[in-house]
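Service request form, structural biology core

Requester: graduate student, group of Dr. S.
Request type: structure prediction, single chain
Budget code: on file
Notes: please return the result as structure tokens.

Sequence provided:
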Amino acid sequence: MGEFDAFTDLLDYPVYVVTAPGEPGREPAGCLVGFAGQCSIDPARFVVWISKANHTYDAALAADALGVHLLPYGHGLAELFGGRSGDDTDKFAGVEWYHGPYGVPLLAEAPAWFVGRVLDRVDWGDHAGLLLAPVAVGAPPEGAAVLSYRDVADVDAGHPA
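Core staff response, request fulfilled:
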């Protein structure tokens, strides 16, 4: 739908890395997400949409909670979590991370993050929406700048289209 593409081409918003604890016997999962946003103020709610083609999809659907990270400027984390697939890459092997609430992997380099308990999962076309209730927040330093959708337009997706 060309007219809608013209509309969405004007948008720019933060991108996130969403992380999920690994299933038993598997490493944690994580992916770059461009579709996400706050959807309620009181109670606080946030929704992330995970591509069904993404390696992280199954882990996210099975998780009780997810980590949502804002990214610092630079392509390092965006390339790793968006340009490579967890099908053939352990994305957590080359980054500093630690276990947060619910065993959610948290990226040390992220300027801000939150862990959200999964309240609902909804199929919305080629993505699934996961409704999150924040349970822990890593507040950003004052004046932190974050990576946006336009900043990562040159990152080729690591999963099949």
